[in-house]
Amino acid sequence: MGEPQRRINPVGDMLAGLRRERRWTLADVSRLTGVSISSLSKIENGVSAPAYSVLVRLAEGLKIDISALLVSPREALGTGARGITRKGEGPSYVNEMGSYEDVAAALSGKTMQPMIIDIPFRDDSDTRVRSEHRGQEYVLVLKGAVIFEMAAHEPVILGEGDSLYFDSAVQHGFSAEGPEGARILSVCHAVNAPALQPKPA
Asked: Fold for domain 10-69?
């Protein structure tokens, strides 16, 4: 079997550069973030790309803006700040959940992280991919249909134009309903907020 193929992954380059700058070992970063040394090594070498939940742990543990892990921030949020992302021009990376495009990479200091995610089809023999990260998440289905699974709830199918808002600290996952795949807009909010409660009917 050959060597694992290196992927184009800005997270690994950013992490390696930050370690050199701060003279940290992988063990130092692991202690700060709770991410295993093995996982950190794979990320730096481009062998694997981190899930959003891992990005949150890295950003919080290293005290950096999450957008800095995807692209060098060009403008900090402030009065009148704005960021424009042309179609297909956001920095992208791939992990087990799907193919991600960061559609607000031009700004740092964000309290929300919007991403367009292409979700693959997974048959019954595939390992279920799950995520959990502090905060809340909004999802809008842009194309196709997705199966959304969340701990303590029955799976639900969401079609084009359907949306979902949920507590992202609870384990959850998406898969496309059909072999053609699906595309969603995901907006994650990682700032501490009151617990979500359904409104009375």
From this structure: 434 Repressor (Amino-terminal Domain) (1.10.260)
Residues 109-168 have pLDDT tens digits of 777 889 999 999 988 767 778 888 878 899 999 999 999 999 989 999 999 999 999 998
**In CATH, what is the architecture of 75-189?**
Sandwich (2.60)
144 contacts 182 by C-beta, under 8 angstroms: yes
- φ/ψ of 140, rounded to 5, equals -125, 125
Residues 58, 24: Cα–Cα separation, whole Å:
14
- Phi first, then psi: what are they for 20, rounded to 5°? -65, -45
102 vs 132: CA distance, rounded Å: 19
Render pLDDT for 76-112 as a digit per residue (tens, 0 to 9): 556 688 889 999 998 888 888 899 998 988 777 777 8
Supply the Cα-derived Rg of the chain in whole angstroms.
17
